[in-house]
Amino acid sequence: MRGRLGAAPALAMAACVSGACELEEITLVEVEAVVVAEIYVNLASDPERNEVRAFLHRTVGSDTAGLAPLSAARITILRPDGGAALRLAENPLGDCVGSSPEQEVGVCFLADPSETPTLRHGELLEVQVELADGGRLSGATRVPARFELDRLSGNCRLDPNTVMPVRWSRSESAWAYVNETSIRGLPDALRPEGIEVDEDPLYLLGLSISDRDTTIAFPSEFGVFNRFELDQDVAVRLQAGLPAATTAEVTITAVDRNFVNWARGGTFNPSGQVRVPSLQGDGTGVFAATVGRRFVVISERPPHPVDDCPVPQDDTE
Amino acid sequence: MGRALAALALPLALTSVGAAAAGAQAGTVQGRVHDAEGAAVYGARVALLRGETPLLASDSDRLGSFRISDVTPGPYTVRVQALGYAEHTEEVVVGLAAVVDLDVSLERSALELEGISVEAERARDRVRFEEIGGATVRELELVDVRTVPGVAEPDPVRAIEVLPGVVSTSDFSAAFHVRGGSQDQNLVLLDGMPVFSPFHLGGLFSVFNADMIDRVELLSGGFPAEHGGRVSSVLRIESDPGDGDFAADGAVSLLATRAAVGGRLPSGVSGALGLTDVRYRASARRSYFDVVLKPAFEFPYHLTDLQSIVEGWTARGDRIALSAYTGRDVFDLTRLDAEDFPLRVDWDWGNDALGLRWTRPRRGGGSWDLRANVSRFGTGLVFPDFADTQLESGIRQVQVRADLDMRPSARTGAQLGASVERLSYDNLLTTGGTDFGGGSGDGWLLGAYAQTRWSAPAAWLVELGLRADAYGADPGAWVGEVAPRLAVKRFVAGGDVALKVAAGRYTQFLHSLRDEELPLGLDLWVLAGDRAPHTVSDQLQVGIEGYRDVRWYWSVEGYVRSFDGVVTLNAADDPNDDLDDILAGDGRSYGLDVLLRRETGPVSGWMALSLLRADRTFADPLSPSLPPPEVTYPPIFDRRVDLDLVLRYPAPWGWEGGVRWNLGSGIPYTRALGSYGYYQMRYVEGGALEWTGDDDDSDVAGGYGVVLADRNSSRYPVYHRLDLSFRRTFEKSWGALTPYLNLVNVYNRRNVLFYFFEYDRTPAVRSGVSMFPVLPTIGLEVRF
């Protein structure tokens, strides 16, 4: 039996005599084939790096015999406020997906990079997905407003063991800011302290909810969703800041309603995670728009050729 | 408010009319039964005899008062019997339309009058049948609570699952639903004090210690205007202050150890307090796994309860009672081996309640009653290593109320009352520098009611009531609700059968956001206001009930209920809108409850059949459409058929046996039609979709999302379970020993808790987990 339970039902399970509560497994004959479309529009600080990517896949175990291939789908981004439509073209799967289960198959579509610089902050976008079998999915979103990081861009140097407040301007109508970091060099940096780190880079996720919440402490407030899976000595160590000789890429991404709903999930279901879709029609999925900002933190002692990160004196050790 | 006051006057006027209309020729015998210290004797049976033949009887209430009305003029012998007291008799002559007042003082007696307690219970049921028009009241005595088989130890809240109209959805949860209402729509009162979340272990057991319980009453419908604040039911749990003799009880079960001690304060102390008699009883309960297992490993959980009642009596019969309860569940993962559980968490939750009550009996019956109580429920989650994380939830209530119970004549009664409540709540989940949810607010609830009763013995009983509530919330505005109640009962077949109809409006100004589809969980309370609506429920019930000789009671009751202003969490709320995290909806229910009870004889018990249909309607938070369409679905407690058979019988070798068999149609669930890889967009390292999500399997990097069928459109298989209990009391010179054995799910029925649809396996399978397997538990009670 594969676990599908949250904390409370897991407690109930624990109360059950081990093994005595398992039900007999019944083979399921029918598996519903449902198309899942995940379409993301991201506006970068440099418009040349704007991206639109779409990943089409189906429910696992679907009998695809007789079904039209997903690669034959036509995906179009429409701009009701004015502007040329963007048509997405199939690309290698690796351009969309970093990791996937073995049995998962899907198709990646990207917009032509020469067309994406025309995407604008605050713009209303619609998407139409036309499947080869005649099925259609559609959705709409509004791109979050432009925002800027406070005195952060490119690379900066941060004293080791220092917590840095990251601040940015408000992105009007964003539902949240997804704050990510990828820290390199932790295994070597923490080995002298007797802390083993398995991953390099180490990925940590933070969140600022609502368009008003425009601060986060780096790195201590990153990784709140990783605390159950992360070695606690690493998580606790990072509350004090980065160790020396490490580098962290940090992204602050303003995300829209559709992104938040798809990411946070809906009601409880013991069979898996429930997501709130933003595409309707012959399938399910998300059509999300985001605005991203990026910087890199180098944890080293001075002197260093890179400019210092903006840390108030009170926040340094 | 003017309209409300005018409406309040109407029932009072009707009382006068009723009194005038009752052209009574018959007389009344009334009075008070007390012991030598002046304390009321509760449950004494007062009978009027001609010769040796009992003609009419009643039992004394908690203040010792009794009333026997419609007495044909003439001479009678009054006989008063009570457990632990010597029988008292005296002669009276009842004149035409006369009222005979008696003051009965009982002497203690070591000789126990066999059968008195059973008779007293039966008499109370009969009195309820004759004197209550609208409310559907089901009472469980302590003996019922103890003999209804259950897990680990007797549980008064678990025990009410066997009553008609009551549905539970899981073996793992003592939360109950009454006639299509949500579990937060049940008002749970301990000695009149509300207890917000009366459960331990996330719902597995109730917080009430059976050693302290005198009786449990469930008002499953038609409850009178004196009760406000909840729309579905009222569960009244009354503590037992004891008879004043020193007594100590102890017990050990698989759940906990518990001890109770009761007695009487020295007369000097009582006298110094201006009281003639002060009785007390206090109990403590604690689970012990953490202590017993400590040499081997740190068991992270324990629960504690402290419950007490002190009852004092004045020379003129005033009763002053102080009740208190405090309980905690502690789930402490901070001391575990970091290798086994690296994330250090300290989680506790619990209720506290304190109430003071002064009751003065009125001559001729009725009473003045003043009450003040405070109650709170709170939970907090602390991560010692992460100061940025805080999870707290709590609700508090302070209430002062006054009630006046008047009995202007033998055929009329009236009650007036008013209450002031101050409520506040505070919820917060913050971590990583951002608030994930929360909210706080407070409110004033001002309530007043009047209810009247007019009866023509063995013919008619009419109750008319009105409740007016004014509620002011911050954030929010003042709202007013007027809630009329009407009940009519028509006795036929010489008074042994009654047809009844009751209609009323009920209101509620707070909600729990607990996800009822989870078998275990904690309440997260919010007050009505700008964030959430208040609930208004209109209810109609029609029934017939009666007695067949003295042994059988039966009842058939149908009902229809509407619920406007029910709530659920909005899974798609806008973080930029502080007031949209709760969805308002409405609901309906209708059904039929049947009860057949055998009240006397060596084998007693009842059969309860409940038929129910319920639905809830909300905007669908899972819809991609804007605005989302409404979705109507059966809630998880929509168990269409629920049958309970409960028997108490003499088992061989002096043991007392209890049997419960429960059959229930399947409850609804939402079936997964398919699953897909759960990807999350990551923007660092160039950006890509990563297979992620939650999964318990450590060798799997990600999880699966699910495509769902219509909400709750499938149903689990039929539920059925047979439980047995055996108890035997061994009397010793120093007290008594009572070992007991409970066998839950005797034939090991695999009742479904959850199905898991696992489409990621080849071939896809439906697996799942069941509720309790066959589960024997033992315990031992000791009385000194």
How are the secondary structure elements laid out?
The complex is a heterodimer of chains A (317) and B (784).
Chain A: H1 7-15, E1 26-27, E2 35-43, E3 51-58, E4 74-78, E5 86-91, E6 97-99, E7 106-111, E8 124-130, E9 136-142, E10 154-158, E11 164-167, E12 176-184, H2 186-190, E13 202-209, E14 215-218, H3 232-237, E15 246-255, H4 257-264, E16 280-281, E17 284-299
Parallel strand pairs in A: 2-17, 10-17
Antiparallel strand pairs in A: 2-3, 3-7, 4-5, 4-8, 5-7, 8-9, 9-16, 11-14, 12-13, 12-15, 15-17
Chain B: H1 2-21, E1 27-35, E2 45-50, E3 53-59, E4 65-71, E5 74-81, E6 88-94, E7 99-106, H2 116-131, E8 136-141, H3 142-147, H4 156-159, E9 166-167, E10 177-178, E11 186-190, E12 193-194, E13 199-200, E14 205-206, E15 213-221, E16 233-239, E17 247-253, E18 256-264, H5 267-272, E19 277-287, H6 289-292, E20 301-313, E21 319-332, E22 346-361, E23 367-382, E24 390-409, E25 412-431, E26 434-456, E27 460-474, E28 478-492, E29 497-508, E30 510-512, E31 525-527, E32 535-548, E33 552-569, E34 582-598, E35 604-619, E36 630-633, E37 641-650, E38 656-664, E39 668-669, E40 672-677, E41 679-682, E42 688-691, E43 704-708, E44 714-715, E45 719-727, E46 730-732, E47 735-744, E48 752-758, E49 765-770, E50 775-783
Parallel strand pairs in B: 1-7, 11-16
Antiparallel strand pairs in B: 1-4, 2-3, 2-5, 5-6, 8-15, 9-10, 11-12, 13-14, 15-16, 17-18, 17-50, 18-19, 19-20, 20-21, 21-22, 22-23, 23-24, 24-25, 25-26, 26-27, 27-28, 28-29, 29-32, 30-31, 32-33, 33-34, 34-35, 35-36, 35-37, 37-38, 38-45, 39-44, 40-43, 41-42, 45-47, 46-47, 47-50, 48-49
